[in-house]
Amino acid sequence: MHNPPLPELTVADPELAGLVEAEAARQHASIRLIASENYVSTAVLEASGSVLTNKYSEGYVGRRYYEGQQVVDPIETLAVDRAKSLFGVEHANVQPYSGSPANLAVYLAFAQPGDTVMGLSLPMGGHLTHGWSVSATGRWFRSVRYGLRADTGRIDLDEVRDLARTERPKIIFCGGTAIPRTIDFPAFAEIAREVGAVLVADIAHIAGLIAGGAHPSPVGHAPVISTTTHKTLRGPRGAMLLTDAEHATAIDKAVFPGLQGGPHNHTTAAIAVALREASTPAFRDYAHAVVANARALAEALVERGFDLVTGGTDNHLILIDLTGKDIGGKPAAKALDAAGIELNYNAVPFDKRKPFDPSGIRLGTAAITTRGLTPAHMPVLAGWIDDVVKAAGAGDTATIGRVREQVTELVSGFPMPGFA
């Protein structure tokens, strides 16, 4: 059952309570490999569901537009101080509602509509809010996009430099949603300095790895850092903007009153809890274990004949090109979900298929590491993925059912935060 229990919800709205319980059971019974997901601790869940949700707090600590902030101000101060300490930054804003609004605040702070901005192309692993055409960031700003080297699948820094020199962007984003390799923050910083651009490191996917010392930090290279607080950081669904002192005021004004009103105080409290957890030696071990699991899984998948973009991974994320398996990413992902292995279909670099029916699948090891799986389990997991992908292509439902049973048996031995 869900933990903490839901007695009041069960009485007040049994239909919804049943759905929440069903989701908790589904998460417990699955191998969750979606690279942007994780399990939060019970303490984070309790903070997220606290009476702090009742309180409006427009403004910042000591400068609110509502009374009754005697408790909320210390909570936000705690979250800010913990963020500054954990990441080693001069300023932190913990109020953005999620990653996309956090990135919009960057545009509002440092660019005007029509200005040129640069980011990694979405089909190459970038994010919608880094200037892609269907996003407001691609409609309101003049977006130029860099890509990857066809021979390595890695960011083409020569192209980044040439584009920056030619286009003179106001903002350069580095980071994305499907980058399995270490981001070269010093190289991006050098390019940004040369052209007078503000470098923004979007570390939403790798924030927990950075906090745990398993990935180099952008601090000292990027004056503005954007991140979500879930994914590898293992906090609630929220976001933060971390900056040096020079860029702090512009960011704060962009978040409030530029883009949003009152912060979600229950989320701020949950962020504070997650940041405290991320400062412990146990979390440092966790971050390194995430990478160890990803590398072990990547190696096992390669041994099974899978084509990995860049050939492997340096972080939590693996991107698989299924072109050689004669199946698209979407049917493969749906078959794997039916087998209890949850991931997402995803475009791969230079993909010839449509975005809603791409050639690849994306997976990550943050959630299964939280459950306690180790590199010893990764060959078994790779074997199941291989079996299901083959079965999906052959219409073999029996194999998918067999793997589902084996997945259920395996995960039953590994506790899940939020489920008892």
UniProtKB/TrEMBL annotation:
Cofactor field: pyridoxal 5'-phosphate
Entry keywords, A to Z: Amino-acid biosynthesis, Cytoplasm, One-carbon metabolism, Pyridoxal phosphate, Transferase
Subunit and partners: Homodimer.
Native organism: Frankia alni (strain DSM 45986 / CECT 9034 / ACN14a)
Serine hydroxymethyltransferase-like domain: residues covered: 10-385
GO CC annotations, alphabetized: cytosol
Protein name stated in the entry: Serine hydroxymethyltransferase
GO terms, biological process: glycine biosynthetic process from serine; methylation; tetrahydrofolate interconversion
Positions bound to (6S)-5,6,7,8-tetrahydrofolate: L122, G126, H127, L128
Localization terms from the record: Cytoplasm
Family: Belongs to the SHMT family.
